[in-house]
């Protein structure tokens, strides 16, 4: 009264035969692992929203959540009864906002203090075309003695990769890369809404990877204009995507004051 194929397979399993003879030409393989290792990408949502530490305040909002005017000694005709649903909605919105805010990260500014320190090592200074004589370029060059200046004439990714590879081949490996490409705030001809400095900074990140360079990249900005802010947005993404070859973002002002102290401490 039992299924014959099922019974046969079970009998073979118990007997422990030589499976190479049962399945000629077969070979053993490892069981897949990924399908059995499930992990959520997103962090788990909180099971409950935490209340305040004040029990009186907690009791008040608990009564509001129940939407019960009698809890406050009110009747349905009192004006407070109409306000309870709105209070409850307001509280739920505030609680939701509080939870969402706890999941966000915040960018803070840290001002460098102390005596400037001379930077060491070999650096590659990347400058946009037409800005090689800017005061900020002079300030960075002074902060990085012996640095090699690379002027980006062509924002094409392949061309910039070739430039970087050739420069490193001739001058030797570098300990860090400093980009001043954000200085070029002119619009891209093909996309006027995009600053050229933003586009070339992205191209530089890509080209350094194409050239196999792992030296940390530092992106410098000058001032608080929209074009400079765009480079900060890009830099934060680059830092998350390529932490192994990312140095950081530094705003040094339009005159480059303090750049020696910043780069000397990295």
Helix content: 40-55%
- Helix count, per DSSP? 9
How far the N terminus sits from the C terminus, by CA atoms, comes to 79 Å
Which strands sit side by side, in order, in the main sheet? 2-1-3-4-5
Shape: flat
Q: What is the ordering of alpha helices and beta strands?
A: HHHHEHEHEHEHEH
What is the arithmetic mean of pLDDT? 80
Count all strands and give the number. Answer: 5
What share of residues are in beta strands? Answer: 5-15%
Largest sheet: 5 strands, parallel
What structural class do you assign from the helix and strand content? Answer: alpha/beta
Low-confidence stretches: none
Characterise the protein shown here.
It contains nine helices and five strands. It is α/β, with parallel strands linked by helices and 266 residues long. A five-stranded parallel beta sheet has the order 2-1-3-4-5, sandwiched between helices. It is flat and about 95 Å long.
Keywords:
9 helices; alpha/beta; 266 residues
Give the topology.
Elements: H1 4-15, H2 19-22, H3 55-65, H4 79-103, E1 123-128, H5 135-143, E2 148-152, H6 157-171, E3 176-179, H7 196-210, E4 217-221, H8 226-241, E5 246-251, H9 259-264
Parallel strand pairs: 1-2, 1-3, 3-4, 4-5
Helix pairs in contact: 6-7, 7-8
TL;DR?
It is built from nine helices and five strands, in the order H-H-H-H-E-H-E-H-E-H-E-H-E-H. By secondary structure, it is an alpha/beta fold.
């Amino acid at each position: 009264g039992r299924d014959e194929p099922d019974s046969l397979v079970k009998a073979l399993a118990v007997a422990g035969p030589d499976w190479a003879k049962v399945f000629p030409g077969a070979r053993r393989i490892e069981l897949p692992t990924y399908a059995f290792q499930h992990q959520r990408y997103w962090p788990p949502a909180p099971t409950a929203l935490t209340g305040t530490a004040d029990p009186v305040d907690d009791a008040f909002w608990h009564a509001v959540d129940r939407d019960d005017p009698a809890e406050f000694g009110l009747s349905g005709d009192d004006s407070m009864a109409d306000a309870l649903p709105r209070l409850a909605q307001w509280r739920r919105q505030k609680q939701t906002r509080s939870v969402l805010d706890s999941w966000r990260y915040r960018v803070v500014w840290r001002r460098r203090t102390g005596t400037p320190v001379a930077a060491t090592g070999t650096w590659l200074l990347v400058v946009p075309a037409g800005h090689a004589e800017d005061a900020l370029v002079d300030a960075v060059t002074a902060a990085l003695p012996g640095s090699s200046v690379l002027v980006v004439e062509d924002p094409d990714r392949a061309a910039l990769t070739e430039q970087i590879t050739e420069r490193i081949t001739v001058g030797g490996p570098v300990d860090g890369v400093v980009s001043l490409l954000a200085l070029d705030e002119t619009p891209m001809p093909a996309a006027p809404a995009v600053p050229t400095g933003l586009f070339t900074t992205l191209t530089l990140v890509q080209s350094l990877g194409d050239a196999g360079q792992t030296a940390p990249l530092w992106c410098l900005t000058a001032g608080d204009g929209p074009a400079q802010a765009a480079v900060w947005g890009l830099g934060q993404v680059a830092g998350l995507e390529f932490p192994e070859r990312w140095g950081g973002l530094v705003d040094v002002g339009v005159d480059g004051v303090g750049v020696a102290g910043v780069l000397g401490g990295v």
